[in-house]
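Please check this today:
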Amino acid sequence: MINMNNREKIIAGVSLVVIFFAGGILFSKLYQTPLRTMEIYKEALADYKSEDYSNSYYLFSKISPLSDLKPAALYHQAECARVIEDNVTAVRKYKALFNHYAKNPLSPRAKYQAAQIIIDENPKLSQKYFEQIMQQYPTTDYAIASEYFLGLLLIKHYTQGENAIFPLSAKQDAENYFRHYLEKAPDGRLAANVIENWLSIDKTISSDDYLLMAESAYVRGEYPKVKELIGHANIAESWVLKAKILNVMGDKPEALSMLQKGFADYQEYVSEEKLIEAMNLYFQLSSMPSAELADILVSTVKNKAHDYALMKKCDYKNGYEKTKCFKNFYADYPESKYAPKALSEIFMGTYELKDYDAAQKIARDYLDKYRAKEDAPMIMFWLGKIFERERNYSAYMGLYKGVITSYPDTYYAYRAYLRLNHQQHAIITNRIKPLPVEYPYPLKNSVIKKLVQLEDYEIIDEIIGHDEFVKSWLLYKQGDYSHSMLVARNAMDKLEIKPDKYDLRWRLVYPLHYYEEIEDYADMSGNNPPLMLSIAREESYFNPGAASYVGAKGLMQLMPSTAEEIARIKNLGSYDLFDANSNIKLGNYYYAYIKSMLSGKDISAVASYNGGIGAVTKWKQSLNYEDTDSFVEQIPYEETKNYVKKVFRSYWNYIRIYNINE
């Protein structure tokens, strides 16, 4: 007879066998090979993109809970249900996502979407979700948007029914939610709704709040709304915005009058930033010579932004008087944010006077204090030229190499490369090796790697779209090439230490749009293809539909009269400046023409492309320059000088990133 102890052991053993067998069956049902998971997901995503939401929902349901793609599959299921207005199922799937995968990056949006869906049928739970979003994910856009909905829920709660009473404390809470939203996201998608609802609950809104609403409407381009709101704001605090809206609405005399009154009576009531905006608008609107305007502003603007007015005054002087003005500025305002600019101007003025010993000391001072500032590569390059003049080989070689190493993507890195290689001509190479735009980071994260392979851009955007380079890549994948390039360019400019030239982010900053067509027509017309690509980049950011305020059109920003003349000379027949192919062809022929008029010099031709042949010819005759570097620095038109630097900076980066020899 088996004793109880042995019987319990037998029962326990049998139970373990049953559990193990059942677990094996369950695991076999849950487990999918990674390849099979990817196949199902890809098919489901294709149905989702083709708007077959029912089948997409079904296929996403087949993704195993053991897969790291399951949260994304749940999200897509919820979205499928939401689109076909099966809100019960949508909320259920969103809840499954944020309950079971609370730390997943998709959870904030899932909770936000669920809260929106149930806002009418279950306002208390909706409120709970919005409050949780603000507590759990305070730095997300969903936390900002939740403030709007919490204010909206308060309005609905206290205004329903004929005898509804809206307590003052609740009204103030709603207003606080709306105020916080506009402060954090003045250009947000819900900003117009915030303003509409805010105005509906209170007739005694403060001047500050009216101004806050008006500023939000301005950044979103709702100019009639700005005009309506600004009338309720205190003129002492709103005069800058009022001048801006008068200008936008076409009343420039009134805008100018408002600026004059503001400078005279109200400058202490606005921030330094707004004062600078007002001064810049004043320069834009007034017909008075800029130097005279600067003098007026220096005598008018006190305390806040006075240093900016002084800096502008110095800007509009010439030669020794300019250098002297900046010396006085630097002595009086050594801690000003404009002090680095002043010192760089002093350096260049001293160099032009050929006082090289003094220039060396100023350069050392600048590099000791402001090595991270915008003009540092320029100072370093010109200091190298001083040492080169003195035949101090190790000093100038070290400085030129330092410019390339520390500021690798700048115009001065390009010029330093030419000096290091004793090259007189502006062109380094005619050819680059085209490489595709790729995801901008190494794909170490398995989920991101899978989503990139699957081309699930919606989920990538939600998970990591806050990264500006990823945002740029997503815009590129959507075909928004101009916006993509601008986002990547701005993101790269923010990096104090630049990545090496092999970093995939550079391809987003300097993409090869239309390069095949540019190369064909550049070869046909005798131009340098990478240089023509650089002109297209700087002229239009690769937007074939670009049109400037002066009438230039298309990728290479040709004036219609110029295009007509070139088409006549080349007997090209009909053309369309907004057609990329036509524009590239005409742009290349035009560049070849102006280059032939300027002894085949590319620096002069690029300057002429922006400033005109007549102006460049005049400068070459009148300016006292010693070489190409000196000529560029002395170009009197600031726009043209910067244009030349930008085009050759792009050229340098194209040949640096897409080096055909590597």
In short: DSSP finds 36 helices and no strands in the chain. The domain at 515-657 is CATH 1.10.530.10 (Lysozyme).
